[in-house]
Amino acid sequence: MDLNKVLYILREQNYWDKEVYDLWYIRDLYLKRIIEWFWISSIVKAILWQRRAWKSYIIRQLISYLINNKNVNPANILYINVEFSALSYIKNKNELEKVLEIYRKNIAKWWKI
Length: 113
Prior knowledge:
By secondary structure, the chain is an all-alpha fold.
């Protein structure tokens, strides 16, 4: 997939160039537990749950919390939903690393590992 198309898709899925929109009903209990778990270490996190259980919605609530309450620069948050996007071709580590490299070179203001 070409660079411009990947960047377009990533911009559509993330809050880099737009305001965090109204997230309707905040699931406080789930969000609180995820936030506590999120700060345990700096490793990459994945949320696994049954299908159609609002995972992407809760992740967007977490992103909103990080931006609005923790003053995290939106460019330092990368959200990829491969289920409903043109990024569904990501099936292995190499394909994900290519997308991450595009993000690092074109979007991220700084990279913390």
